[in-house]
Amino acid sequence: MYTTVQILHSYWAYLVVLVVTLATINALIGLFSKKEYAAKDFRISLFALIVTHLQLLIGMVLIFFSPYFVWFSGTHPVKDIMKDATLRLYNVEHPLTMTLMIVFITMGYSKHKKKLTSTPKFKVLAIFYTLALILMLSRIPWGNWLS
């Protein structure tokens, strides 16, 4: 079960990186080119919201099966988790940062819907989606992900 969920989480992550990158670039282009906000822009930002939330759900399932996630198992004291870079990444840094990334995606998507004109819509999306992209890229376990 762990292997299946881990593979799904890993491969879905490629889609998440691609879609969030595209949504961020689309928002930045829309903001700086002063183009009109269209249905295509709405769909791109919505798709970024959907794929990130699905990745969160897959990640939450993975927490229950992962041998790397030992935070609540009682087998490792917190000081040992924080001293070990791999355990700290999988138990603290990656889950926390990715959850914050999804919060930024959700906030940006929600706030942009309340704006009435194109420039403020693109501005909100550009700010929140760029922050989310930076957070996401900072805590992907690149050593395991690319091997």
Binned, the helix content reads over 70%
Q: What structural class should be given to the helix and strand makeup?
A: mainly alpha
Q: How many helices does DSSP assign?
A: 6
Average pLDDT reading: 90
Inertia-based shape = elongated
Report the C-alpha radius of gyration, rounded. 17 Å
- Unreliable stretches (pLDDT < 50, length at least 5) are none
Order of helices and strands: HHHHHH
Termini separation: 21 Å
User: What can be said about the biggest beta sheet?
Assistant: none
Approximate strand percentage: under 5%
Tally of DSSP β-strands: 0
Quickly list its features.
single chain, 147 residues, mainly alpha, 0% strand
Walk me through the structure.
- By secondary structure, this protein is an all-alpha fold.
- 82% of the residues lie in helices and 0% in strands.
- It is built from six helices and no strands.
- The chain has helices at 2-33, 39-65, 78-83, 85-114, 118-138, 142-145.
- α1 packs antiparallel against α2 (39-65), α2 (39-65) runs antiparallel to α4 and α4 (85-114) packs antiparallel against α5 (118-138).
- The longest helix is centred in the first third of the chain and has 32 residues, at 2-33.
- The mean pLDDT is 90.
Explain briefly what this protein structure is:
The chain has 147 residues and is mainly α. It has six helices and no strands.
